[in-house]
Design goal:
homodimer, 814 residues, alpha+beta, Aldehyde Oxidoreductase, domain 3, Aldehyde Oxidoreductase, domain 4, 3 domains, 7-stranded mixed sheet
Amino acid sequence: MTKQDFSIIGQPLPKIDAWAKVVGETKYADDFFLPRMAYGRLLRSPHGHALIKSIDVSRARELPGVYAVITGADLPRVKFGILPVSQDEEALCTEKVRMVGDAVAAVAAVDEETAERACRLIEVGYEPLPTLMSIEAALAHPEIRIHEYGDGPNVHKNVALQFGDVEAAFAASDLVREDVFFYEGNTHLPMEQHAAVAHATPDGKLTLWSSTQTPHYVHRLLPRILDMPAAHIRVVAAPVGGGFGGKLDPFAHEIAACRLSQLTGRPVKIACSREEVFYIHRGRHPVLMWIKTGFTKAGDITGCHLKTWLDGGAYGSYGVASTFYTGVINPVTYKMPVYKFEGARVFTNKPPCGPKRGHGTPQPRFALECQLDKAAEQLGLDPAEMRARILAEPYTKTANHLTVTTIGLGECIDRVVEASGWREKWRGWRSASAGASTAPAGKRRGVGIAASAYMTGAGTAIYWNSMPHSGVVLRADRSGGVTVLCGATDIGQGSDSILAYLPAEVLGIEPKDVHVHPADTSLTPVDLGSYSSRVTLMCGMAAIQAAGRLRGVIAQAVAEKLEVAAESLAFRDRKVGVPDQWERALTFTQAVELAEARHGVLAFAGSYAPPKRAGKYKGGGVGPSPCYSYSACVVELSVDEETGEVELHDVWIAHDIGRALNPLLVEGQVEGSVYMGIGEALMEGQVFRKGLHKQPSMLDYKSPTTLETPDIHTFLVETDDPEGPFGAKEAGQGPLLPVPPAIANAIYHAVGVRCDEVPITPEMILKGLELRRKGKSARVGPEKIPLFKFKEALMVESAFGRPADAVAVRPFQS
Amino acid sequence: MTKQDFSIIGQPLPKIDAWAKVVGETKYADDFFLPRMAYGRLLRSPHGHALIKSIDVSRARELPGVYAVITGADLPRVKFGILPVSQDEEALCTEKVRMVGDAVAAVAAVDEETAERACRLIEVGYEPLPTLMSIEAALAHPEIRIHEYGDGPNVHKNVALQFGDVEAAFAASDLVREDVFFYEGNTHLPMEQHAAVAHATPDGKLTLWSSTQTPHYVHRLLPRILDMPAAHIRVVAAPVGGGFGGKLDPFAHEIAACRLSQLTGRPVKIACSREEVFYIHRGRHPVLMWIKTGFTKAGDITGCHLKTWLDGGAYGSYGVASTFYTGVINPVTYKMPVYKFEGARVFTNKPPCGPKRGHGTPQPRFALECQLDKAAEQLGLDPAEMRARILAEPYTKTANHLTVTTIGLGECIDRVVEASGWREKWRGWRSASAGASTAPAGKRRGVGIAASAYMTGAGTAIYWNSMPHSGVVLRADRSGGVTVLCGATDIGQGSDSILAYLPAEVLGIEPKDVHVHPADTSLTPVDLGSYSSRVTLMCGMAAIQAAGRLRGVIAQAVAEKLEVAAESLAFRDRKVGVPDQWERALTFTQAVELAEARHGVLAFAGSYAPPKRAGKYKGGGVGPSPCYSYSACVVELSVDEETGEVELHDVWIAHDIGRALNPLLVEGQVEGSVYMGIGEALMEGQVFRKGLHKQPSMLDYKSPTTLETPDIHTFLVETDDPEGPFGAKEAGQGPLLPVPPAIANAIYHAVGVRCDEVPITPEMILKGLELRRKGKSARVGPEKIPLFKFKEALMVESAFGRPADAVAVRPFQS
């Protein structure tokens, strides 16, 4: 379909729930109040690492107003974790705490104050153990074991893959660079803190309302944790006030609320404080990276070898996936015929890390894009031109066997290069500032560029891998309304709206005529969750399938009535008819009545399962996606050589969205991603002192405000991908990725300082300037990599360069 | 299927929502509280009949705390009514009030007290008109017109039908009786008063939660009344705390709440007071009846001629249907080869009458069954034996073209005759008491018998007649849970539970594994509503169809996996397997996972449309039902000849339920019907003084308590009807019907007084005894019938006696 064929798609429509957000009627989990509700609090460990020798809750239980106090002894002795391979958490720790913030007991009381006071009356006997607070410390102290499982002492996961002969590639290169980078951890910082309300009812059933991105996964886990049948549990995702990956795990407060409700017979709410969220968050992994890449004189990449060390914190969470992700996506962007990846995730006594917007990929993206900038300089190439030259080819497989369909990255680069005046600025300012190391200190301007790719939905599920990943049940009723039931969780990205737009487009009605009921394991068919940029594509395809089935039945009834061919019918303006006999068209309501009278209830299911494209090697299932989005970014900034402060002026970002189903929503996602990328590049870092977070509040943890946000110029590139709904690909995560390296590259362009670590602080820049003044290499960043033996690399034949014939392309049948 | 084939059906299981009722967690409409909610009150007319000359709301609007005051001028000038032929109501009257209680204005305020105070500040200029407070008065004063429409002055509906030559039948009879009866109006008296909460949101949509039995009909009407698209309105039936037909109409308070919400931007709740419910109720029609029946010596009915005059009150409501119903069901019980019916509904200045349990049929049932008792006496027959002799034949058509399938009435009569010791008591006591007119006054015992029939669901709908009447969407998920979406409203009868039992039976799981989401026009497919005893049959058949489709898909997947034939699979104990290889059976959860992986989302719709059996004459669509239930009742009582007081001792009631899906629920319905029949027979009457209800409170309006309720002995007769779900027919209304005539007949048996009017008061009995002492006819009741010319009777050939070959019997395919 071409753009002019659409009536809803491509329009800058308001979100269907915008009004509720604007007038404050959206009910987040913490806005739920049920009669007789009790309020819960968790008692959390003040130790980073300690054995639990005793827990005495007797004084807490005696406090008036306390309904129940529980410890791990009140739950089945099962460990859990979002990934089947990392079942290492207890909702309430029984033997050991591994981080400050680990929960050891929970209280339900008449109000939060009483619950809090009761927590303080609980006496826990701890035997402190040494804390391991960094990758290096964790690897250096195998005698101190945080967990008893994993791929080595304090090593959660150790993975090594080699696609082709990387050493041979380096030997045949004109230039080989080795660089070391560090990307500090940071947190999602959603406006809404985690909260849950559990209600166990006398019929033995249980409902959990939670600010979760994955109600169906939580539903999958609770039966085992609570020892009751899944069929008797209902999980409802309340509207999520920002997730960014921080609400993807099952959490202690959810489980404690459930158990407390079962014990008290009351609904129980537990809302986490902002401080608690800084501990439970599952944020961005700190990653130390070593990257070695070979180039030809022309800038082509001959091969790449990447090592990543992830600081996983105290638990597994999604960490195995994160580890793979650090090594998987870079080859999707550029031709990289030979590729080797070694990754290790270590346990430390810090809050566990997991998925955050871009899950595992901003870190290696930072490394690659900064290294490309360095290589281009060495090769005397314009880094924009160099990138444009080495782009991956559409409809091919990458070295690591990922199937790529459309690639709009070339156009993305063109757009930001054009709009930013890159050529003039990059060439012109370079000689005037970065090159002019002897010029007097001042505010210097620079531009930097970077590109990136991101997946549109994980091709493999955590559970039920062979099942559809998303389902939609769609029903038309005699009022002319259409109801969509879908398990997707709107975390602010607008998935509810997309689920109204797509059926409206197919059926020729207005989004307002569509009622979307999301994210309720009892009401809605499964959707795996709002993660991995999968919802628009997967739920969207399911919705289109369901709407297509409905359209077919309606068309058949109308065709019989009008005595025309069903294929000749158009659905638009809430009517169904033959375009050149539009005066005979039935209203949509009439058409539905007619079809229902002939067919019975007009309810149709749509399902989506991604194409099976997992690489045929261990770990080959992490990374395949139906299609990939692309972004290119140019940043213009000034660096104050006196203070080291960076001022951003403009960000030009172009994003290959496939098709902008609603350009307003896409631009919102792109701008949000840019804003978050700026925070990660320049301000945000989770840092700890003996296990205690140093900035556990929104006063202390610095994140950009509108004052620190530059003008963002967004360009949407539409490649009409055959895998996506009406051609759409992802927008919610990918555009973050090029921002940190573009900033680092622009800083180098401005003042000649290479910051190989984020967040880039004024102190780092001043240190780099000082080194430069001393005539040393003006590089700031990690110097060493850990002494660590990766497992033997799994040798896999590189799939790069293969023709597209192996690629299953399934264009949308309109 | 035979009884032993079932695992759920036939078990006395608890209702799935019993826990919520017991612990008080059911949220009725008046339990809804939304943030910023305003509270509304209606200003109601104190006049029974008056012109509205002016309405001044200015002082009310100025009262602090008042958000909005509306009159009819703030609504589109459309009249509405539940039946398309009787669009005669205004939510807020603009020109005229026709009853005390007619609403003329509505207020939304910060609380109910303020709203009430504001109502008192509204000044309405009325010009009173003469009130017409009885059938006779309405017919005698054609110069006073309550409405300008109808079949004559103050005649809402006038209908006359003749099936065969009734005069010829009378001429050929051994005995012809003419009798006149009166059945006073009464009210439903549900424990829950009507309440509604409306919420108009800034996106232009509107949600109405209401204690309604017909959310889809309300949804159908609101768009026109509010002038907005149906697709933007959502009507949710809150759990209904008793309806009995009193919550079937759209009501002024619902519409006012909607408009006030639209104007204020706040949710608005209007909860009616008990006094208001006595006016808005749409209760049992007062009906005056003349009945002439011919008999052979053996007791066979040769022909019957029935005239009914209904006191309809001020508006149409369901009155056209009520009028037909008074003439339609009697021929379903007994062979009545020739039949003539004339009915008229008149308007009066009383609250409008509509459907109440048994809708339009207890009144003519009272007339017929009392007349049969008189005829049996004249013919020297045992009235039980006489009824057993003249029963209608199964699988035939009645004179008025109704298709009858199974008839368990013979067994019902046998059961109550046996259990009550009828033969001995009737013959023995007769000579000792009723016959002994000269015996001294005292407490005398008597027994009476009556039988009845009732429909199981109206075969025709009010709107969308060609469409399915009920729909179910059923979905199985990977947790092993099954979700049922159905528009049916549980009004206490247990329809939610039935919707869990039936899929559980088909799928071999437990009702607890089924999640029922009812009665929400946005979420659920259409069900016409909880009226006419239609829900168990119609929704049940749709649920079985949907469950059968799901079962089929699951069976196919399991059969492939186990390499067996799908037909050989059993579903039981939450497993699916071949009975003689049960150890290989999959769990239901495994089976669902397997089937979903192969088929996609497991969501299936089921639909039900009743067989098209409307008689081929005008009005032939009122009365046809897929099948009919039957009841027989023996009452034993004492009459105190000093005080005229009646004491009930025992009620034996047998009900042909087809199949008792849950005998506990059926017995509850039967006992509830008996209790209500007792109230109508002996206590309850809606009486008015100049338009004002004389007993508008539960203190004044007398209804039986447990103290007045005798031992009720219930017998369920199962005839396994091919039209019903697993053979089930209705239970919720039919068992009321024989109770009043059985009581009247027992009173005659005890003291020889014929009470041809209900409620039968001590005064009436004393009057009868006085007449008897004076040697006059000991009959108490109406003496005259109105001077009224019915329209020319529509001559239709009687269908009686035709063979069953024309009857479309569609047995359930398991």
